[in-house]
Amino acid sequence: xxxxxxxxxxSLSLEEAIFTRRTVREFQPKPIPRELIEKVIExxxxxxxxxxxxPWRFMVVAGExxxxxxxxxxxxxxxxxxxxxxxxxxxxxxxxxxxxxFAKDLGRAPVVVIVYMAKKRSDYAHRIDLLGCGAAIQNxxxxxxxxGLGSVCLTSTLWIESEIMVHLGLKDFELVxxxxxxxxxxxxxxxxxxxxxxxxxxx
Length: 203
Ligand SMILES: Cc1cc2nc3c(=O)[nH]c(=O)nc-3n(C[C@H](O)[C@H](O)[C@H](O)COP(=O)(O)O)c2cc1C
Known about the structure:
Layout lengths: L13 H7 L6 E2 L5 H12 L11 E6 H11 L6 H7 L1 H4 L4 H10 L5 E8 L4 H24 L3 E2 L9 H7 L5 E12 L19
Antiparallel strand pairs: 1-5, 2-3, 3-5, 4-5
The site of flavin mononucleotide has 10 residues, from loops.
């Protein structure tokens, strides 16, 4: 387990990062050096986007402000039944107890990155901006992982979006996900992938 690497040691190759990254939901409470957070943010901001529109915006929250924010974020399990109803097959394998437990203090993540973007009037622009933000988040999660950090892309918080955005002074923007981040406590569980997702034509 890579838990405490500096900037220039411990970096993984792209392939290693892609194939070993796992979602982390339990963190050591120790702070993350600012240079590492900057590197993760820079990786996000380097993602491709339609017309190079760079739709993403980031807010990095730590310390007392993080504790205040968590008091709001921890309300999302109130919507757990609604969330799981949208994914009935997956819901069978999810422990509501572990989600509720995680939500109490976001697995003790010392840093919470808010990914957000401007509200869009057109459905087309909205869709492509979300794709751009998704690319940024993937860059961020892989970079964090390659630096020995873990993260979780937490979209369940969208159910309490307005409360979060008002609290952060961002009510005119749209929340994408919340990314709690920190040093992992333990090797996360490997979640298998469905190998049967591709149709090959002409090969
Ligand atoms: C778009 C997106 C939304 C997600 N939302 C949540 C979430 O709300 N809560 C959560 O605990 N994990 C969330 N995850 C993490 C997934 O549960 C996780 O990626 C998946 O189970 C596969 O596990 P792995 O990332 O460890 O390979 C999300 C991941 C993505 C990409």
